Amino acid sequence: MGQIKRGALIVFEGVDKSGKSTHCKKLVEALENFKIKAKFMSFPDRSTLTGKLIDNYLRNKECQLDDHAIHLLFTANRWEKVDQIKSLLNDGVTLIVDRYSYSGIVYSAVKKNMDLNWCKQPEIGLPKPDMVFLLSISQEEIMVRPGFGSERYEHREMQEKVADMYLQLSRECDNWEVINTARSIEDVQDRTCEEMCREN
Ligand code: TMP
Ligand code: MG
């Protein structure tokens, strides 16, 4: 019996309302058209135990929680899924993931008194992505997108810091590709598919 080729772990990152989930879902469709087994996942998964606490923290701006505590909840939310992630990858399924450890690191590390290195530690040991697409978009554009401002981190000051730190991380890692979303959805799609085919 031939060995099943491991699936790829592909992550989309970017500020709020940058279009990550749209692009993830389109990429899953495109891969399925090429007969590649693919599945969409997103973090935070608000349906789990930790996910419900996270959802409350994000939607209820009055909710008081220490920045370290919420950071660890976001990370725990990924660790809750680690067995599922590993087993899908081993079964040859390519995972297209809307946010992962980098969201965890960036959104926490831009806060006052949070140390970047400390933020990275609880992510150690999670499966490493094969490729990260960072969606780049202007602040002006995200701020007029429907729903912007409804959750805790959706304000200009935070989003600008997050965008800067993402760019900083992208320069430190060689498997990141920055995608300018000013291009059409189809264009971005072609670009991501092109990159993925190069990887395979
Ligand atoms: P979402 O808008 O993609 O559902 O994500 C909810 C918010 O949570 C978004 O502002 C980014 C933030 N976030 C973190 O702060 N840490 C994390 O680990 C993740 C996955 C998201
Ligand atoms: Mg959001």
Automatic annotation (TrEMBL):
Its EC number is 2.7.4.9. GO terms for biological process: dTDP biosynthetic process; dTTP biosynthetic process; dUDP biosynthetic process. One of its GO terms (molecular function) is dTMP kinase activity. Residues 12-190 form the Thymidylate kinase-like domain. GO terms for cellular component: cytosol; mitochondrion; nucleus. The keyword DNA damage does not apply. The keyword Signal does not apply. Keywords: ATP-binding, Kinase, Nucleotide biosynthesis, Nucleotide-binding, Transferase. Pathway: Pyrimidine metabolism; dTTP biosynthesis. Belongs to the thymidylate kinase family. HAMAP family: Thymidylate_kinase. This is Thymidylate kinase. It comes from Aromia moschata.
